[in-house]
Specification:
Layout (H helix, E strand, L loop, with lengths): L12 E2 L5 E7 L2 E12 L2 E9 L3 H22 L7 H7 L7 E2 L2 H16 L9 H13 L5 H8 L7 E3 L4 E4 L12 H15 L4 E6 L2 E4 L9 E5 L8 E5 L2 E7 L4 E4 L2 E4 L12 E9 L2 H22 L7 E8 L1
Length: 324
């Protein structure tokens, strides 16, 4: 799934503060609660945090955080022709390694690690397939089987290689990268890191449903998160802090051809959109991990998760799977 196509990822409903700031008395400490939002990566990034800083300083912190999100989008996007990600994809198969930024190298190393842990159910090299299915959804027609086979032949996470610090290579010609299953979570974690660097620890970052949580709000057990269920009228309420949480699934967005529903989530092994209905929520130590594992478990379903459980230490998973 590409950045800019958040698909079925459900935005969590968390407590909605009044825009601007709200004064909170916390013992001898006076905190203000601020909310800021910024469109990027095909979704809305939202910051909710508590601090003793005034509104001018809080707004300056938010501007720095959102500037960082813009920078990451310019690196990770597969929509922007001149993004660093696309420049690397354009040189796939070239024997010469390509210099890459620390951010791109870092997220690609994460991607390889999660691909290995999930036997390729998460795979950042699905970009050629993503392009085919993006077109299929636009024109409401099934991709040509020969084109699927050709695109599928370029997909293999082991094609991502590193040639020393700051250099990467895509070993197979035609391979294209798509970080849509990990980039928003990664960006949410980066936002939370920057807030903590600014001395703000009671914070929530929501990147279109990929959520990074810092310390709990004053006087609360945690951030109030309403986890989606298959019945949208009956969410489950969680109180969480210092973790990441993401929901993904092949439940609502699909292409129906000859009575078969193909989800927007692509199985890297078959090259096809999922034909099973799944709703998965993953709570993890951080949002990067939650995002990648939610993508993988959507593909692998219950059977996959049972196989990978020992590799997914530190995860809490809620999974519902039925026929689509």
């Amino acid at each position: 799934m590409a950045i800019g196509d958040r698909g079925d990822t459900r935005v969590y409903k968390h407590e909605q503060p009044t825009p601007g700031s709200k004064k909170i008395e916390q013992g001898p400490e006076t905190l203000y609660r601020y909310t800021f939002s910024h469109p990027q990566m095909g979704t809305i990034f939202r910051l909710v945090f508590y601090t003793d800083q005034d509104s001018v300083d809080a707004a300056a912190v938010a501007a720095r955080v959102f500037g960082r999100v813009d920078t990451l989008n310019a690196i990770f996007s597969d929509y922007l022709p001149e993004s660093e990600l696309n420049r690397l994809s354009d040189r796939a198969g070239n024997p010469e390694p390509v210099p890459v930024s620390a951010e791109l190298e870092d997220i690609l190393r994460h991607a390889r690690r999660y691909s290995k842990a999930t036997d390729g159910a998460f795979d950042a090299t699905v970009g050629a397939l993503t392009r085919l299915w993006r077109r299929a959804f636009h024109f409401q027609e099934m991709p040509d089987s020969a084109r699927i086979a050709a695109a599928r032949s370029t997909v293999d996470w082991r094609n991502i290689r590193f040639r020393g610090p700051g250099c990467a290579q895509l070993a197979r010609r035609g391979t294209r990268l798509d970080l849509g299953g990990i980039a928003a979570g990664y960006a949410a974690d980066e936002c939370l890191r920057l807030l903590r660097t600014a001395g703000i620890h009671r914070a929530l970052v929501d990147a279109g449903g990929d959520i990074a949580l810092g310390d709990a709000p004053p006087g609360a057990a945690g951030w109030r998160i309403e986890k989606p269920t298959l019945d949208p009228n009956v969410p489950e309420t969680l109180f969480l802090s210092n973790c990441g949480i993401t929901t993904s699934g092949a439940t609502y967005k699909y292409l129906e051809i000859n009575g078969v529903r193909h989800s927007h989530i692509i199985d890297p092994k078959t090259g096809l959109g999922l034909t099973h209905r799944v709703l998965v929520t993953v709570q993890a130590p951080n949002a990067t991990q939650a995002d990648a594992w939610a993508t993988a478990i959507s593909v692998g379903g219950m059977a996959g998760w049972e196989k990978w459980k020992k590799r997914g230490r530190g995860l809490k998973v809620w999974l519902v799977e039925t026929g689509i």
